[in-house]
Amino acid sequence: LKRDPKYAQVTEEHINFFWRLLGSESALIDGVTKDATDDIEPFNADWMRKYRGHTKLVLKPSSTEEVSKVLKYCNDNMLAVVPQGGNTGLVGGSVPVFDEVVINMSRMNQIRSFDDVSGTLVADAGCILEVTDNFLKEKNYIFPLDLGAKGSCHIGGNVATNAGGLRLLRYGSLHGNVLGIEAVLPDGTIVDDLSTLRKNNTGYDLKQLFVGGEGTIGIITGVSILCPRRSNAVNVAFLGLESFEKVQEAFKEAKGQLSEILSAFELMDSYSQDVVYQVTKNNRPLESEHPFYCLIETSGSNSDHDNEKLEKFLEHVMDKNIVSDGVVAQDATQVKSLWGWREGIPESLGYWGGVYKYDVSIPISELYGLVEETREKIAGAGLIGGSDEHPVVSVVGYGHMGDSNLHLNVAMRRYDKRVEALLEPFVYEWISKRNGSISAEHGLGLAKKKYIGYSRSDTMIRLMKQLKDLYDPNGIMNPYKYI
Ligand code: FAD
Ligand code: 2HG
Ligand code: ZN
To answer: Which domains occur in the chain, in start order?
Structure first.
């Protein structure tokens, strides 16, 4: 990949403009043309430390008008930009590739309004997910999305990636929950579509282009989102199972018997749990070990009713030998600690060095086959061992079983070309043959840019490019990424 010379380099004149507009506190520079104002390295490196850009300028606008002025100036001066939220994305989309200007949204972090009858929240894009959910908690509502990076990711970043997370099974995708969007196009146009209506069939639903657009056509500055009531009865069960067939049976039974109160059904293989154990040394939830584990969460309004349902379900799946062992959290602390065995997987996997990550949708019956085949392939090549010569620490599978979304992760002592050559394009071909998706919920970013053709036809890619050219004719928005 080469820097495209059509983009301008940041000059002292540009910096003077941004300083006048935003103040030096909100326009951080790496001291090339002026003295460094701050350490901008964190804005150049992604969460996995796999991708690293070389920006010299980070802008932190604090209003939609400022975003509009910044983008118009960049567009007029051919300065390429990267929108950045909490920088927790897992496909290298949120950091520059070369010297693109980072537009970081952390200063736009105000809740604008909340209607406690309809549950509609209107908020700035830079609100942190957990902070927003805590605000909603006080009103007895819940954000319709939850994920392990909640303490840092922004709701604008969540919408820009169309993040799925742990409760999509219950609350559905952001394509349904986002009611309105305020965004800025590269020419400075403010797209004011911050509707709070549930129903609005008046022509093309253009806001959907920004949901999952990964910052390639504009910057989201505000979102309006439909939030459900918070359930006052939440139960979590952690189960051990002997095969992936049994996991599928348990899922079928959970849908049938827990139906309307089922709020999460997560899968973890034994390898993923071994990794969490090795890193955290926490006491394991179950006494014995099993090839597979599931975390089931129910959320309802009546704890007696929910407890009875969950107990009956557990009795049934144990009697029928579908589940070998299980534990139900007795209080909020245990709920948190059981969730830790699932939510803590990505962080624990990063303990040794690098992680190759594949976030894929596969027809459910074949979901775990990819992990088994990948593990065999890597073991066959003698690369497992966690040493310099045998750099693979573990090949693990986990994910959102309820959405047929698998996370295949290969934990490494360090990134290694031999392993990479075994994994790619093998994984993508495997998925394509089964009509799966090479990106279920994380997006394409830089990581999967070359592979979009495994999941999208030439016609679909052409239509995407036409849209990109229409909204961003100069191509300044998040260049070098998937489109
Ligand atoms: P960033 O990482 O800053 O940006 C992501 C992309 O969106 C980039 O392309 C960026 O340019 C663009 N972008 C950011 N803000 C804006 C904006 N305001 N306007 C336009 N474009 C913008 N993802 C899931 O789907 N499900 C999970 O369960 C999940 N769990 C995770 C757990 C961990 C521990 C981590 C580290 C990540 C996880 N992710 C998950 C991945 C990630 O997509 C989410 O963390 C989150 O949605 C990204 O939000 P962010 O604010 O950090 O965005
Ligand atoms: C999760 O479900 C996230 O925990 C992260 O989507 C998955 O790191 C990954 O591959
Ligand atoms: Zn996930």
So the answer is: 111-226 (3.30.465.10), 233-345 (3.30.70.2190), 350-442 (3.30.70.2740)
